[in-house]
Amino acid sequence: MDVEKIAQGIIDGIGGKENASSVSYCMTRVRMTVKNHDKVNKPQLEKISGVMKVLVIGNQYQIVVGGIVNEVYDAVVEKLGKDISQDGSVDELVKEDVELIKDNSNQRTTNRIKSTLGIAVETLSSIVSPIIPAMLAAGFIKTIAMIMVNVLNFSDTNTTYLLLNTLGDTIYSFFPMIIGWSAAKRFNANVGVTLVLTGFLINPGFSGIFEIVNKVTLFNIPVTNVYYGSSVLPSIFSVYLLSILEKKFRKVLPPSLRSIFVPFFSMTIVFPLLILVIGPIGVWGGELFASLFTSLYELNPILAGAFIGGLWQVLIIVGMHIAILGLVSGPNIAKFGRDNVIMTHAPSLICQMAAGFAVSIKAKNKELKREAFTLSISSLVAGSVVEPVMYGVNLKLKKPFIAVLIGGAVGGAITGASGAGTTAAVAFGIYTFPAYLGTGFTGLLAGCAIGAIVTFVLTFVFGFDEELYDQ
């Protein structure tokens, strides 16, 4: 596959180099923000060989290219030149969204809501996305450690196991700092100042103050004792404020004083706001969002599993799955060492492949049969990266995708009932199953198997319109 040709096609499709505002990427998508939406030729983007789908989320064009996303992203950045923002500018996004809501009065409220939600989802996703490779790498390290103990019978006191296990846990031990680093890149804030501020939140010396003093105050204002080890929003909010202050101070301070006083003034302003206001509110806000899923799980794991398992593939399409992983799954692992909630989506990944296999058997179109089988196998071998078979086959044919949602709900319900969990933020697949070992693992396997069978049977029995494949 010609990566250079794909990259050039993307640039041409979004209206040329001059129309590109920023570029980023996640596991399977190149994310492009543009200056003028009228110059974008979405049908042209969708016709590029190697592009599976083009999604418009908020103000961002997400071009799904699958496993070659890193190569395509690098080629796009190289062709756009060094001046292109590789993280995006929130100020630009806000300006664009202001323009979007300047429609007729009847549509203004609806557009404002969509615009706000679009910014929120896009911003969270763009901050979490650069961390996903590290989370996956850490997950595989944890998987190797689990294999050593559970399969190869290493002692749990073996120092090699302990070192690997600690390496795998490191990303969660410093989660607020890592989120802060990514947010600093996203908002163009000073990375060094960001690491100091977010690092303070998890500094043992900070939490230790509450152990030796009954009432902690800053300038006689009470400081709330909050656990920040698995927090996300405090880092994001504080870094966004930091980026605004830095811009303001750069404008008013002479060049000779900026290197010292911009970080000093910015830090001294953000710090009290962080521990007095932003931190506690951010933690509570993150817990509120997470509680939408965790409370449902605590109320009824079966219902929660069915809801998450049935909805997850839709969340992938709209790009919200990354934000949810960052706000729920990652913090759960950081806080409890295990995520039992969001991992109930695992059977839905297997269901995508099951639908693809059913299509490959039932289809009469030889090209469709071949592609459905190839993409299903590639998703399996790639470690449950399901976008190729989802966009390439199941979503195009519609009915197989509906079967995936039903099978995912069934499998998720069984998984939820079993109490299964994962110790690492990795997709369930042939390489990563040791991360899911422990309580409920048999139930997870049953959920995947039964969900896949349900999906396969529904796809095979109810069929699909093959003519949709060529549209």
> What is the CA–CA distance across the termini?
22 Å
Shape: globular
Structural class: mainly alpha
- Residues in helix, %: 55-70%
Question: Radius of gyration in whole Å, from Cα?
Answer: 23 Å
The succession of helices and strands, N to C, reads HEEHEEHHHHHHHHEEHHHHHHHHH
Report a brief summary of the structure.
This protein is mainly α. Helices cover 67% and strands 6% of the residues.
What's the arrangement of secondary structure elements?
Elements: H1 3-13, E1 20-25, E2 29-34, H2 42-46, E3 53-57, E4 60-64, H3 69-80, H4 90-100, H5 105-128, H6 132-150, H7 159-173, H8 175-187, H9 191-201, H10 204-212, E5 217-218, E6 221-222, H11 233-252, H12 255-299, H13 301-318, H14 320-336, H15 346-362, H16 366-381, H17 387-397, H18 399-418, H19 441-462
Antiparallel strand pairs: 1-2, 2-4, 3-4, 5-6
Helix pairs in contact: 1-3, 4-5, 5-8, 5-14, 6-7, 8-9, 8-11, 11-12, 12-13, 13-15, 13-18, 15-16, 15-17, 15-18, 15-19, 16-17, 17-18, 18-19
Would you kindly provide a written description of the structure presented here, covering whatever features stand out?
The protein is mainly α. Helices cover 67% and strands 6% of the residues. The chain has helices at residues 3-13, 42-46, 69-80, 90-100, 105-128, 132-150, 159-173, 175-187, 191-201, 204-212, 233-252, 255-299, 301-318, 320-336, 346-362, 366-381, 387-397, 399-418, 441-462; strands at residues 20-25, 29-34, 53-57, 60-64, 217-218, 221-222.
